[in-house]
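Ticket #4471: structure export looks truncated?
Reporter: QA, pipeline team
Priority: medium

Steps to reproduce: submit the single chain below to the structure queue and open the exported record.
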Amino acid sequence: MNTNNTLRFEKLHPSAFIFAAQLILLVVYAIVDESHPGRVLLSAFSILILVLAVWAVNRSPATNWVAWLLAVPAVALIIWATLKPGAEVMVWANLLEGLLYFYTAGSLIAYMLSDYQVTTDELFAIGATFTLMAWGYAYVYLACQGFIQDSFVRVVTGSGSLSLIDMLSLSFTNLTATGISDVLPANPWSKVLIMLTQFTGVGYVAIVVSRLVGLTLQGRRNKKG
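Actual output as written to the record:
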């Protein structure tokens, strides 16, 4: 790798790496099983994304200590739950992960709104922010399920503990308003979370994505002028 490519790589915003890591993680979820080695692999990926999230906050206009305050105990709880499967601490780890992802998504939104130019990094940030919100809500769903049993139920089979991939499917479904999920909220708390997810998805497209699209079109018109 030459010097120019190295400098370009170092200047790349961590949102690109977060976006790539989360897309890869979706494939990993589909491949691994619920065995202990599978849980260890998923935990390792989770910790990696938490580190990338803190890095993204460090490169964005946000308060760094908040990210560390959420990330450090989350990592400790993930490791604890991995070493002792079934430990209730995973519920708190899920909650902290969700909060960190929301905080990181907010810092990326602030990064994208901080100027009037659309860069390649900001295009990656669009995707990374959306996936961070999706993972954030998925982890909060898991925490809700941990605190209140049967908060979410399957349409076909009824009650039962749902996995992270189930919650991710529900989160993506409601953020994009596609309406194809086979999971439904079953109590007031989970219904409120679903409504917040839908509101977030609509607001993100209406405010952030539309603004960046408008700036891109404006930039092209200025170049032609």
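Status: closed, not a bug. The export was complete when the record was re-opened. Leaving a note from the reviewer for reference: The first helix runs from residue 3 to 11.
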